[in-house]
Amino acid sequence: MPDHDTEFHLNRQTKRRRVDIGVKRILLLSSLLRAAKSTVIIDAMNSHHSKKQDVLECQEAQLGEAKSDVLRKLLKSGSSYEDNIIHFSSATIITKLLKSNKATRGTGSRESVIPRNAEPEPLQKDTCSNSSQESAEAYLSPLGKISLNHLDSERLNEEYLQAKRARVENIIRGMNHLPNVMATSVEKDCERELEGETEITVQSFSPRESNRENKRKQKLPQQQQHSFQQLVSTHKEQKVEERRQLKLQLEDMQKQLRQLQEKFFQIYDSTDSEADGGNLSEDSVRSDGMLGDDSMNEHLIQNSVADRSDNEMADLGPGCFLDEAKALLREQALLDGKMAKHEGSLRSKGLMSLHEVGKHLAETLKQELNSAMSQVVDIYVDMNVFSKPPRPLLQVFPSLEDHFVFNRNNPDFHTANQRLQCFGNVIFPSPLDSFVGVPLPCANDQTEALPLVVRKSASEHHQSSDPGAQIGHPHPSLHPSSLSENTGFISPSFRHPFSLPLAGYSFQSTLGASSTGYSSKDSPGSMDLSRETTSLRTKMASSQHLIRSCSPVLPGSTADGLSLIRSECGDLQDMSDISPYSGSTISFSYSSMLKMYFCDVKFNRCITSQLIKWFSNFREFYYIQMEKFARQAINDGVAAVDDIIVSHESELYKVLNMHYNKANDFEVPESFLEVAQITLHEFFSAIVASRDVDPSWKKAIYKVICKLDSEVPQIFKSANCVQELLQE
DNA sequence: ATGAGTCCTG
DNA sequence: CAGGACTCAT
């Protein structure tokens, strides 16, 4: 029977096994963005960043990545086509070539001067390597060096010049497909290169250089003219084929472009109404821009690509395809510019501001992310946590409704609710709500979960700390099934500072509430903010030195929630492997949460890391205690997991409360007990099942518990958090 | 190189 | 809790 010391051993074991959770956030964000396919988001983002992003990115955001993918493909294809035809025509290669030549000339030291007249040798040895970039490069590269000890340098010079000319011809031909400017410049460069050729002489070769050259010369063409002809003939065929393929690609791109265009306008139509009432979302703004310049956009988009006839296309060389793609990019940039312009005009009208845009964009993004996360959480919890015969958690809901003061008409609720961002068991207002002035759908629409902190009841009679109730000794009145009769929740001793995952869990997961937020029916109702604020006031009052920033105080009240979210959501990546909804995992960082909730706090590195530190520590403590008590229960001979009941009298609860809520400043939400119990059960079961042999066995538990997390109380998001608390 | 976040230790 | 090592990502 393992005692709880094992924990430390295991901790040590898992030392290097930890999963770094902050890894894929950005990916997640972007993938979610894509998955969401929300034009609201995309447009907003595009508008917000358009000026900073390059053309490709703008285009991607604006018309969707499909198009840009096509463009990229086209560009890529174009260049690969060129590569295939004549590598020398590749701008990259040319650039490289010219650069290296220049570098060579610029080298003062003779020792390091590239032995240009040494290059012809490869001509004699090579067998028409005409398609590999490497060979081309090698051949052209002034870096190529061979031992010339036995060679007639003059002859080689001659040959080399011949080869060089052929190559330049080759390049020029290849460049026919490129924009004139480039071709011309390259041509000139090449000519210059030829002219200055004979000035370079060979002085010496290092062995290393020789080796490098030897490697290369095997691939170099022996007969430049011959290989060139082969090149041309081969590439002519390739040209035809490539042209055909490019044509197909372009046609495909046209199709996609049209589709995107249609989609774009459809989206505008669908969101048009949402922008009514002076609430201009990014989407509507953008769409307005589109419609405002409808004819022009149509022209821009269709004229260059869609309207181009196939015949015309067929006559286009690969360079023209590239031009086509570039033209598309330009068009997109232009469109983007118009968007920005339109946006600017709106802004000048006072309808919106860039700041608002960014803010709203962020909010929208967060909502989308959380929605997706919530889905995953729901599904996972439903599948894993409640796969067993349902425990009486459902009864928590009515009981909580009884115990909490739901004041849906509380004006504070609405103002705060509009700012509400929830994590963990995410409850968000609908994405559009985040935009300025968009009213909440309904006063009764509960978009928030239970606050983490409940104000102490006015009747501050302390609950009897009955030491009798211990883990492994179920107490009827404390069992979840009898929570509705349990008055303990109202009882002031329920003051726990940290997040209470189950608040969201009970309602959302158990009741199967929509992941996008509590519906008005599923939600427990709005929490009376005054309760929590009053509760917090106590804390605040005792922490006047932190008056400017409430966050230093808050970690104690939000730490575990944040920690849970933070630590476990990272594991959603793992869960995504299990979940059929694997596309929609989410991960939040502490810092982003902190910054969102404590907007009045000027976060710097120090503050952020300190808070993170606190959260980590809080979280750690929670789980350490869980494991400890689970092992203790096992040691005590508890056989069935259901015999483990966490109540207000449980030692576990006391320990936690002592740690997080020493002064009992906070009323601990009922759901905390639920989550604590579930956590304990998880640990117990895992240990009993010997899953703890796995160094990372806790992670599975983290996953489960993470999903029970409830959101940070909305009050914390208020910029006037402190004032509000003190006013209570 | 730096930051975010976790894990371990004291 | 804090310090610091460590990992991972940018």
TrEMBL record:
PROSITE patterns the record matches: HOMEO_PROSPERO
Molecular function as annotated in GO: DNA-binding transcription factor activity, RNA polymerase II-specific; RNA polymerase II cis-regulatory region sequence-specific DNA binding
Domain of life: Eukaryota
Region of interest (Disordered), residue spans: 104-136, 195-238, 271-295, 456-486, 516-535
Pfam families per UniProt: HPD
GO cellular component: nucleus
Cell compartment(s), UniProt: Nucleus
Biased composition, class Polar residues, residue ranges: 126-135
Ranges of residues in domain Prospero: 591-726
Record InterPro entries: Homeo_prospero_dom, Homeo_prospero_dom_sf, Homeodomain-like_sf, Prospero_homeodomain
Annotated keywords: DNA-binding, Homeobox, Nucleus, Transcription, Transcription regulation
Biased composition (Low complexity): 220-230, 473-484
Primary location group: nucleus
Example GO BP: cell development
Record's protein name: Prospero homeobox protein 1-like
The organism of origin for this protein: Sinocyclocheilus grahami (Dianchi golden-line fish)
Gene that this sequence comes from: LOC107549340
